[in-house]
Amino acid sequence: MPDQRSVLILGGGSDIGRAAGLAFAAKGWTVRLAGRDLQGLTREADDIRTRTGATVSVHRFDALDTPSFDGFLDGLPALPDAVVSAVGVLGDQGAAERDVAEATRIMRSNFEGPALILGLVANRFEARGSGTIVGISSVAGDRGRATNYIYGSAKAAFTAFLSGLRNRLARKGVHVVTVKPGFVRTRMTAGMALPGLLTVDPDVVGNAIYAAVEKRTDVVYVARAWQPVMFAIRSIPERLFKTMKI
Description:
The protein has 246 residues and is an alpha/beta fold. 48% of the residues lie in helices and 16% in strands. The protein contains nine helices and nine strands.
């Protein structure tokens, strides 16, 4: 008999969100896709349902509308077994350096919104005594770089939040996973020159998320080459690092 556990995917209309939904649905989970674009989510839900036969529903969620978060969770059919946050925007670094509104959008979308909703989920999971939380962060948060430090700083904050949440809930029956995909071939990276060895497709990320939930992994570098690469970058002395263009 198929497993009827359920997963809520925040940012379910993104390429990674859709891939995660497909990965869970293929294993018999009930999938709830949440995001702002209900029409787009409905198309994704129909596709996942057709491919897998899984139960898939759609729910409106805006990561920047923080006052709506409790009502959103209260409105779900049931508290899910796992929640995946695939919310985030890359934004425009150059514009964000000059425009506070763009910098605010990037920071709120990649840290404030995802952290606050997952914090509320964490409280409900803790009260129940079970659940898995997955936050999609980024290798960009491992060290600030001139080319993307606004996005990277938000992801660094999100990584720290997930680490602290994992530590807090470790003995409460709730597991927290941090996923760092690196470069992914998505609509967000369209037009960028992506390094082949360090770039993966969305389905690889989706499968990695599912595997991390099942194996209760703590931190996942989806493209494994990123782990030594980021270790090397973090090890560069600051006096040297500030003269580099990376």
